[in-house]
Amino acid sequence: MINTQVYLFLIFIINGFIIGLLFDFFRILRKAIKTSDFITYIEDALFWILTGFIILYSIFTYNNGEIRLFMFLAILIGILVYILFVSKYILRISLAIINFIKKIFRTIFHIIKIPLTILAKFIKKLFLNPISFIIINIRKFFTKTFKKISGIRKKA
After folding, report:
1. How far apart are CA 37 and CA 26, in angstroms?
2. Where would I find the H helices in 64-86?
3. Do residues 43 and 110 touch, judged by C-beta distance below 8 A?
4. Which residue has the higher pLDDT, 115 or 13?
């Protein structure tokens, strides 16, 4: 009987640790990607839904659906242990990796951007400049024609 209680206590400490890790996942996601308030609300709801599933799954799997006060105490202990001793390292390492990947993508983007900019300028000179030249000359033609017609009309 005591062995099963200790076993359950340890399982729920691990659950608390997992919930702390899940919390850090959402924190890292928010720091890495700037999101709107609406997306933040969705992330919060998703966190609580996942947390509820983790707790309910563990209660039904390991304790046949019986809820005990020590389970919630164990979850709190697991969360506290995670936040006090592991969280800061997970955050630092994860954010360092994400920032490194962002730098790589920025570098690749800048490398790709140079030839695309040159290509865009070439296409502009090749296609848009002649088209704008034609449009400008058509506009001048119609403006001159309209002025001639107006002048003829005033004389008449």
Report:
1. 14
2. 69-85
3. no
4. 13
